[in-house]
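Whiteboard transcription, Tuesday session. T.W. wrote the structure tokens on the left side:
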């Protein structure tokens, strides 16, 4: 029996927020699966470091400084990817920003910033990349939302609302782009060991901390960025083409 490859033709992928945590793991996993990968991040140096790790492992990657709240920046980044690596037909919207504030103290500026990074950034990146997918007649979009969208979280009304918006956006876009050969799914991570999670713990917003939370997690461990990367890589494969508009939970059983 010959091994099954992920793709008939190696695609070019864009991973936003790929300079850190989950995004970096997704970028490396997509490369290992055979994609050329562009890493977009607010922190250009971090994006380049992820790209250098991929290149050192034998893959093709570039790191690009892109702020997903700036449409001109996104369009320039997508143009650069097209010129350097070919038309992007895999997009992982992973860049995210959390926040912990009492509902009555959330300012308009804070509300708008959380929505801009998590929700509008996802919309703008999809709109910038989808024409390449439509032209190719094939595409895979994975939007990283959050278990906060499913359960809600105190002090996170803005973040929970933005991520719930990503879920609704995913379901609507899946229906619109399905006839073009493009799937759109969302992974809501829960309790993944990244700089974001450790910052939350350090600021005292994770109850008794990571170790205590492990005790109430059905699989009895904290998630790793690679857990999300594995699910994401699966959803981008050719043979995942009948899966679209889905919420693909990866949370150790914490959110059922
Ligand atoms: P992380 O380590 O903080 O990584 C997030 C990355 O996104 C950082 O590199 C950050 O850059 C980048 N970013 C932030 N704003 C950006 C912008 N405007 N434009 C471009 N890049 C931007 O967090 P993570 O835990 O890996 O989170 C990845 C995704 O998973 C996020 O969408 C997050 O909401 C979601 N998530 C994570 C967990 C978890 O348990 N870790 C749970 C649920 C959902 P800077 O560092 O320069 O800001």
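and on the right, the sequence the group agreed on:
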């Amino acid at each position: 029996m010959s091994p099954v490859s992920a793709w008939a033709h190696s695609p070019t992928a864009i991973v936003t927020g790929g300079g850190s945590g989950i995004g970096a793991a997704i970028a490396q996993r997509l490369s290992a699966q055979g994609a050329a990968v562009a890493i977009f991040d607010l922190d250009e140096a971090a994006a380049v470091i992820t790209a250098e790790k991929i290149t050192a492992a034998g893959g093709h990657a570039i790191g690009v400084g892109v702020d997903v709240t700036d449409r001109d920046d996104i369009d320039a980044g997508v143009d650069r990817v097209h010129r350097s690596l070919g038309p992007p037909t895999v997009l992982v919207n992973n860049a995210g920003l959390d926040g912990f504030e009492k509902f009555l103290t959330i300012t308009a500026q804070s509300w708008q910033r959380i929505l801009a990074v998590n929700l509008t950034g996802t919309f703008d990146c999809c709109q910038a990349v989808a024409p390449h997918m439509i032209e190719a007649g094939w595409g895979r979009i994975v939007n990283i939302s959050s278990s906060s969208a499913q359960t809600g979280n105190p002090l996170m009304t803005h973040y929970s609302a933005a991520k719930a918006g990503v879920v609704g956006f995913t379901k609507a876009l899946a229906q619109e782009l399905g006839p073009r050969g493009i799937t759109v799914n969302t992974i809501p991570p829960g309790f993944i060991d990244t700089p974001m999670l450790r910052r939350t713990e350090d600021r005292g917003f994770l109850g008794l901390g990571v170790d205590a939370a492990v005790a109430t997690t059905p699989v009895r461990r904290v998630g790793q960025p690679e857990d999300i990367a594995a699910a994401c890589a699966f959803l981008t494969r050719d043979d995942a083409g009948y899966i679209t508009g889905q919420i693909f939970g990866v949370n150790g059983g914490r959110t059922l």
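Someone added at the bottom: The pocket of NAP is lined by residues 16-17, 19-23, 41-43, 46, 66-69, 94-98, 117, 144, 146-147, 189-192, 194-197 (CB under 6 Å).
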